[in-house]
Write the structure tokens for this entry.
Amino acid sequence: MRNTYALTEAAIQLALFTVLFLVSLYVPLLGAVTTLFLSIPFIIFTIKHGYQQALLLLVASLVVSSVVGSLLSLPGVLMFGTAGIVIGALLAKQKNRYVVLVAGTMTFLFNMVIDYIISIQFFEMDIIKQALSLLNESFHTAIQMMRGMGQQPPKELQERFEQGLELIKYVTPTLFVLGAFLLAYVTMIVSVPILKRLKLSVGTWPPFRNFSLPKSLLWYYLLILIVTFLPLEKGTFVYIVVLNLYYLLQLLFVVQGLSFLYYVGDRKNIPKGMIVWGTVLCLFLPFLLYLIAILGIIDLGFELRKRIL
């Protein structure tokens, strides 16, 4: 009886996934939204029946997607499917949602890296290089249009743009991590309300104000800062690793700093809406993010929260 129920549930979730997959593949704009829901059938099924049977659902989804779509769509199906299974398995065990978020991020990241390597090795298609080339062509086209209208673009602007493109090329690993994190976070945000409606236990988010990084990250950050003073040659493996670790740690300290501000806001009874709007404002002002990162470092190193009355 139980196997029959699991089989019926698998058929329902497979049908739901197929509909979402078709919309994502063939409907412009709406497809970009439905893509964010592709993991939900796997999350639901995994919570109810465990990851072992969910793997069978994933195999069936790969077969169906190869028929209704194409072989090129299989990596995407595999990515959202495995992420859904990992998230669902951890939610079923009532794990901390931050732990679930990290696991989901790692799963998305692993799939993204594998897909990128496959696209280069087997299809000779480097998405990053193509995107940078497109940006470069668009910029130079805009420059030519300005010159055609009798305006001379500032040389400083061109130099900054070229430096920006070069930086993007070097920090591609960091962009991959950010992309994986956003996919995992959005997947959880859109899935939790649905799981609650289905009366599936998903726990709650621990208060963000209580979030704190391990203190050991300060030592890693100090080591990275010391290495940055060494004469590293641009483009080398060590240079790329150090640069990406520096930016990733900076982002983590920004999160630590924001968490501290939320803690202060809670203790001082500052309206939560004001803090949220302040956070949104900071995202558009890079110099404020830099100050928040410094605040996060100070909070982590000197335990500022314990000094807040």
